[in-house]
């Protein structure tokens, strides 16, 4: 006699219809509660570890990793408090604990990338030539030239690099800082957003600037022309004045390649290099780390890497530091200051170095 019939005759209840299917569904739901939160946290906080940060929206997640790490850590603590106050069914309790632990591990790993950038390295030894550099994105030439001129007069930088500034902006700022010589790397008819203006103080000596603008479609092409500054106070050091394309739809495809072109300075054999300008990337981007291999980020060395330079309309703890002064082959940063200058969506970066 079939066992099912024997069970009925003896008064034993049989398995509920669909019982095994229900158990399978519960197992899948439990696994989902454990795994899905961890995977989602990793995609948001650690996309650079698998190269996803070269695509949207993951490039934005990577740029905001310091802020997102703080928010995720707060979320883990809040979820833990809630779980301790509310009873849960045993199966879901175990899954929730595993999921919360997984998210906690991801947050801890993200924090391990972020926190060291708030701790300054040992300062450079005394000696060498002092050099002060100011980098500031002029926001399509709309920055307040009077306020910028006041910063230049007060801080007396030797070299000033102004992305998104062309001939019109150069003329206006030059009139307010008459002791400085100035260049722009685009023709007079070009929109300010296309250009980079370089200012040099009398102390900088006989420095010269040249445009770097390769033919469209070539491997070394950039959407915005760059410039290189040499001579005078720089000695054998070459300074690249750059404006890397933004991580927005239609442009992000060019972004990793442009960052890779920073190797012309960071991997330069012999002599030292500086890279100054709007790089539209942070140390949390894998493309930034690859393109700047061989360079040190001045703000990271001085523990100032978590102060945002964009967006200037947000609190300094929110946003991203996408403006940089990078050093290689000798120059070292003594201190870094982030300055507010009206009229731009960027803050300025003032760096004192030793050559």
UniProtKB/TrEMBL annotation:
Membrane-spanning ranges: 27-46, 58-82, 94-115
Native species: Actinomycetospora chibensis
Alphabetical list of InterPro entries matching this protein: Endo/exonu/phosph_ase_sf (IPR036691), Endo/exonuclease/phosphatase (IPR005135)
Segments forming domain Endonuclease/exonuclease/phosphatase: 134-346
Domain of life: Bacteria
Tagged with keyword Nuclease: yes
Name by which UniProt lists this protein: Endonuclease/exonuclease/phosphatase family protein
MF term (GO), any: endonuclease activity
